[in-house]
Design goal:
alpha+beta, 3-stranded antiparallel β-sheet
Length: 139
């Protein structure tokens, strides 16, 4: 059985990651949907949701540094905390990946034109995304 209702649904995803917050707007018509999208934007709600998401990720990352301390699990998970995230394979030993509003930054390296190496933590937002955070260069 479907829960379909007449009208229009607009889904706004904060970024391309699987963990991106979504805003789903149900409206009776396109004009109402536009009004509702503008209202959501005007309230600053996306920034607040992004901030909360970033805080939750930071708490999870910090909890991995302190054995025995874990955030409470989601009720759909039976209250069990999620297993700790596995760091990316190319993360330098002893390093913890920084977190930005788009998720956990990715450690990358490369060669400069002069032959020297560069290292940085890169935002996981899709390349070309205007909201992509700047690299965190490592000296």
């Amino acid at each position: 059985m479907s829960d379909y209702q007449e009208g229009i649904t607009v889904t706004i995803k904060a970024h391309g990651g699987h963990d991106a917050p979504w805003f789903v707007i149900h409206a009776k018509d396109a004009a109402s949907a536009c009004d509702m999208v503008q209202a959501v934007e005007a309230t600053g709600l996306p920034a607040i949701v992004g901030s909360v998401t970033q805080t939750i990720r930071a708490i999870d990352t910090l909890s991995q540094s302190f054995p025995g301390i874990r955030p409470a699990g989601h009720p759909d998970n039976g209250g069990a905390a999620s297993p700790p995230a596995t760091p990316p394979a190319n993360t330098p030993p002893g390093s913890t990946a920084p977190i930005c509003p788009h998720g956990t930054k990715v450690y990358k390296t490369g060669d400069k034109r002069d032959g020297s190496k560069w290292k940085a933590w890169m935002c996981p937002a899709p390349k070309g995304d205007e909201s992509q955070c700047p690299p965190a260069w490592i000296k």
